[in-house]
Amino acid sequence: MAQPMDGSPRATTEDLPHYPRPRECPYRPSPALADLRGPRPLSRVRLYDGRTAWLVTGVEEARALLADPRLSSRADLPGHPVLHESHLHMRATREMAREEDGGFAGVLFGVDPPDHTRQRRMLLPSFTLRRVQAHRDEIQRIVDEVLDGMVERGSSADLVDAFARPVPMMVVCSFLGVPYQERDRFEGPASTLFDPARAEAAEAELTSYLEDLVRRKAARETAEVGGTPGLLDRVIDDHLRTGELTVDELVAFALAILVAGTVTSTQTLALGTLALLDNPGQYALLASSPELVPGAVDEMMRHLSLVEQLARVALADIEIAGTLIREGEGILIGFAAMHFGPDLSSHPDEFDIERPPVGHFAFSHGIHHCMGHNLARLELEIAFRTLTGRLPGLRLAVPAEQVPWYDDLTLARLRALPVSW
């Protein structure tokens, strides 16, 4: 028979462990997460406001739940877990994420089937491995160009500003067909979209720019700014002109892809490089053995665990692993807790690029598995192979503990990464 609550005599809220656990190191989650991996794959945790949610730390249970249509991604549902009060003021979470608000949570990430299925069907053809591989030469050109500029300016740099931020932005712009020459209109807002104080204004600025760009592309007016065809052009031709898609929905698609495709890749490049440099021998090993790059990228994504959890809400009673999740209860799929458990890695607490994990949840799983995983993986592999090959002597210019960073419980981020070579 399924057990209520946490599988033990009913506990009071005060008795439950708190969640989330703040990071002590920028490139790995809190070691205190180990305390939450108990004998059961699901347990109850207490959030900042005293509300509770289920935390899933079992790998098989997580995969089953992420594929279960009885879980909802809608952040406007009352039981949706919120990790910090500041998140209530961001359009990508909870009340602010209602679809009629036009926020990017209203497409892809924040909707359920059948809307989600319809949206993915329109976009997936652009993200096939074959389509993505066609961008290999362009991505290599971008990485080479950015590194050339960085090296020409001297023998030291802030790797975030000089490499980790521009490469993903240029790659995603090329993929979407967004003119990078117009970056003054979108780079600033994109960088502040997850700042609670700036989120609403940033989204409004980005939306205004993308509405203008879609209008110009639909009217074939982007040639004067060097615009090249990309995903937006294909979707305009295949779905907007047919009436299957509205301009507002296409703008929301573009906003979601532009943000999701830059923020996480930027921090994987920045934090991944810090992890390589701060763990003796790892950077030099990758520089001398480029064949290790694909596995090293997987190990970075496991160890960094940039997205530590995904929030869901049960749409019906669900019995799993002898536990009953009731309709309306919040669920947190604990990616970071699983990444540092024994099921996915032979060395969960170590960072070792020679022993990549047998799997990870960096791209999620199930119906919301990241559409852009082929593009992200190709971009990261080219970037790390080129960086380590061109600058095998790269080193931190300050002690690792002095590297400035912050964690707002959505994504750990480096403010800067001073390096020299």
UniProtKB/TrEMBL annotation:
Ranges of compositional bias, category Basic and acidic residues: 12-26
Region (Disordered): 1-31
Residues in coiled coil: none
Keyword Zinc part of the UniProt annotation: no
CDD domains from the UniProt entry: CYP105-like
Protein keywords: Heme, Iron, Metal-binding, Monooxygenase, Oxidoreductase
This protein's record includes keyword Magnesium: no
Family to which this protein belongs: Belongs to the cytochrome P450 family.
Official protein name in the record: Pentalenic acid synthase
Organism of this sequence: Actinoalloteichus caeruleus DSM 43889
Lineage of origin: Bacteria, Bacillati, Actinomycetota, Actinomycetes, Pseudonocardiales
